[in-house]
Design brief:
Layout lengths: L5 H43 L21 H7 L3
């Protein structure tokens, strides 16, 4: 009692097959496989890139003056 048996698995599989159909499930599995291969290709390209060629973003200085915005310019003009 409380365990999942072979009959419960077969019923769930049958319901999924009826809802999605055989063609839709094979399309989803194909897309899943393409996604995995694309991910692996991206990971191998990232590993082969040299660290010097990667762009680095520097953090702004903490004591730099904040840039003025349009709102502050328009609020200073007389009405």
């Amino acid at each position: 009692m409380g365990g999942i048996g072979i009959w419960q698995i077969l019923i769930v599989a049958l319901v999924v097959l009826v809802l999605f159909g055989r063609g839709r499930i094979s399309e989803m599995m194909g897309d899943f496989g393409k996604g995995i291969s694309s991910f692996k290709k991206g990971m191998s390209e990232e590993e082969s890139a040299t660290p010097a060629s990667k762009a680095q973003i520097e953090a702004p200085a903490k004591d730099a003056a904040p840039a003025e915005t349009k709102n502050s310019e328009t609020s200073d003009s007389p009405s």
